[in-house]
Structures are given as structure tokens and as C-alpha cells.
Amino acid sequence: MYFLPRLVLNMKNEFAHNTYDRLCAHAREVAILYSVQSLLGWDERTKLPPAGGEYRAEQMSYLAGLIHQKQTAPEIGEWLNELAESDLAADPHNDTGADIVNIKRDYDRKAKLPQALVEELAKLSVLGQQLWVEARKANDFGRFRPLLERTIDLKRQEAAAIGYDGQPYDALLDEFEPGAKTTEVAQALTGLRGQLVPLVAAIAASSRRPNRQALQGHYPIEKQEEFGRRCASAIGFNFQQGRLDTTNHPFCAGMGPCDVRLTTRYDEQSLAGSLFSTLHEAGHGIYDQGLREERYGLPTGEAVSLGIHESQSRMWENLVGRSRAFWEFFYPIAQQTFPETLGGVAPDDFYFAINDVRPSLIRTESDEVTYNLHILIRFELELALINDELKVVDLPEAWHAKYREYLGIQSPTDSDGVLQDVHWSSGAFGYFPTYSLGNLYAAQFFEKAQQEFGDLPAMFARGEFLPLREWLRTNIHSQGRRYPAAELGQLVTGSPLSHDALMRHLRGKFTPLYDLH
Ligand code: ZN
Fold first, then answer.
1. What is the pTM of this model?
2. Is 281 a catalytic residue?
3. Which domains does the chain have, with CATH numbers?
4. What are the angstrom distances between the C-alpha of 9 and each of 4, 81, 87, 201?
5. Is the Cβ–Cβ distance between 235 and 252 less than 8 Å?
6. Which residues, in sequence order, are bridge partners of residue 253?
7. Active-site choice (82, 158, 177, 281)
8. Cα of 247 to ligand 1 centre, how many Å?
9. Which stretches of the chain drop beneath a pLDDT of 70?
10. 177: nearest Cα among 444, 376, 430
């Protein structure tokens, strides 16, 4: 064994610190570009005049190229090599170690992809989305089919280039849920399916039905906005560092450490649509606002995965926002805000109506129980497509068959069937399961918080939501990417990913509502 003299060791450490600082400065530069891209994207979806679209596309594609160039700069590889053996990289869970591990992970992934493949996928994604819009409008899957076949072919090439231990889908899933394995996700989701299908059937067979008509009436948009802001503030979204605007397809965009923007859409005839999408996006926004400001632009100041991000939005939307306790506090305020429509509606009727469960065709409009079956169908189909166990030509019928089997319904068209979602047209294979992972993690986190706080519903009924936000901030948001999602879940809850907590929540809530046994 050979020991370095102390002086040399110190120099080596100082050298490593300089390299780490350079790596961070570079990462923060990329973050600036990303945040500008995010701002342009937000503007495009909220404010941009129709004729401005073409030049905006030019701006966006220029920025995308710049970002890609920066992210694959060869000096990153050199810095990472220099840092690999340093003390700074020794612990993958402290700030410096986690930054180095994750920058290396992202860099390796990008560096493995041949330029020609990246370019063709990018081109196909733009073309695919245009063609998908046309095919969906015309209810013509045949028009979309050749492009989807080519996309799947390229995604298989992408998986092969990146490499995987288990199966090709692992490499695709990894883009959205770093570190997740197909077999583990499949196990959790298949377990969920086994329990959900009979629950959905039992609810469908129940003679109890909420009166959805009770909620119909006039909800002035400015009043909806006022009420939505009040709810988002109450659960802890900071409007000093954020905004709420209107759009067609609600989203949340973070574009700086103190600038997180929510969007929603309003329907004068319905309160639920705007309100639950505001709560959902506020859940995403609260996560972004809980990231550590001083780590902005570094992996330790970034969200860990799409699944964990979605767990935050789903928790505030469903586990909190659709709970009885939430409305014990907010329903009197809602009645004061909308006296004409809600003045005469009993709290129990309101609560049942916002928790209406029924099999439906459209994923984005589905309820808390059936939602995961929509996801399962997409996950199982895209996995079979990537594994070449299903041909694209057979996809529409496979889609219908699964809807019949899991939800007991079938779309009369492909527009509301296999052409329903934009994801596959843009090459986003491996994205869908993160929605359900979000629901699973949400239930597990919430159950743990409930154990630690003792009686969360009693707190909600008093309007106390901030302690839960602080708990999430400490345990999840401020952690950044120090732990991969599954490890973070295990660390916070003491249990591996499973469907148990979600099923306990759904049974506990819907058994009395639908009088099930
Ligand atoms: Zn979401």
C-alpha cells in the first residue's frame, strides 16, 4: 500500500473542490437556459398571440439545441473523471456526492445516444404530435400508424444505446423515474389491478349514486379564481413566489427559485374542474417551492422523479382536497362564495358528488378510483409494444379489449380510444406509469404523515394544512435528488413501494360512501 504525503493529498482535495465548483457553475448555466425555456413555454401556453407561434417554435428549438450542446460538453466527462475518486464523491447521499452521482448519471445517459438518433427522435416527436392531432380529429388510426411504428423502432434503438440490466423498457422508464425497474413497477401495478377491478365493479353495482346535478349552476369565474387562490394559499402555496393563470391544459412550471407558476381552466357551470386542477398544480408548485434555493440548478436542488412529483400533486388534490375534513373547513366558505348554487346543497351531498366514481372513457376526466386502471392499460400496452409482443396494427383492438376487461366499457371510436393521449406521439414511452407511481407514493406518504401527526383530519377541519406541508418539505422536497425515488420512499415511510396504502385509503373512503361490504 502506498500513502500519499499530506501536502499532495491537500492539493488533491483543493483540486477536486475547484473541479466541483466548475461542474456546479456549468450545471447552473444549464439551469438558466432551462428556466428561460420554461418561461417561454409558460408564455406560449398562457399569453402568446396565435400568430406568434412560428417564431416561438424557432426560439424554443434554438434553446433546445443550446441546452443539448451544453449538457454533452466533453469537459463535463473530464471533470467527472477527476472527481470520481475524490472525497467529494465518497458519499452519494450528501450534497456534493449526490450532485456528482446525478450529473454523471444524466451525462452518461445523454452521451450514449448517437446524435443521429437524437435528431430523428426530435423530428419525429414534432411530426408525431401534428399527425396525432389530425388522426384524432379524423378518428383514423391508420394515418398515425406508420409514424408510431417508426417511433417504437427508434425507442428500442434508444434503449439499446443506453443499455439495461433487465429489459429494454427499463432504459425508457429510467428517463422519467430514475432508478426504477420495470419488474418492480409491474409488480406494484399488477397487484393494484387485482384489487381495483373488483372494487370498481362493486361500486358500479352499488345502488347508491351521488346527485351530480346538485352541483350544477352558475359559478362566476372571478369567484372561482378567488376561491381557488384561497385554497392554494391555505395548503401552503406561496403567491409571493408564484402566480396562477389560465390555460387550456393546466400545468405547473417552475422557472427559478422564487418563481413557480400554476395554471388552471375555468368552466362557469362547474367548480370542481378548476378547483381540483388548481389544487393538483399547487401540489406540484409546493414541491418546487420546497426545493432548496441555495442548491438551485444542481441535482440536490431538483425534484427526484416524475412519480414523486405526481405524489405531491395527487396528495393535495385527492387525499386532502377530496377529503371530508378539508370540506368541513372550506364548505361554509364555498357556500358564502357561491350562495346561489351551493347555498341549498347539504355538505354530505356536496362531498359525495365530488367523489363520484364511475367507469369512463377519458383518463384525464376519471375519478380517484378508476384513474389507475386507465394508467395500467397504457402501461401494459406500451410495455408489450416495446417488447414486440404486440404489433401496432393490433393496438386499437388490444386497447378496447383491456377497457372491456378492466372497466367494463368500450369507446365507440379510436379518437377516445388509442388516440386519446399525446404521449406516444411524442415518443414518451415510460411516462404513463409515473402517474400511478404518484398515487401509490402519495398514499404511502400520507399514511406515514397521518401516523406521525395522529389526527390529520382534525387539523384539516380547523384549516391547519401547513404542518403537513412542512413535513413534506423536510422529508421530501428539501432532499432534492439525494436519494433515488424508491429509496426516498422507503426512507420516509419505512416500507417499499406497494399498493397496500392506496387500497386501504380507497376502501376506507369508498366502502361507506357506496355502502359496500
Ligand atoms: Zn400532475
1. 0.94
2. yes
3. 4-163 (no CATH), 182-513 (1.10.1370.30)
4. 6, 17, 11, 67
5. no
6. 261
7. 281
8. 15
9. 1-12
10. 430
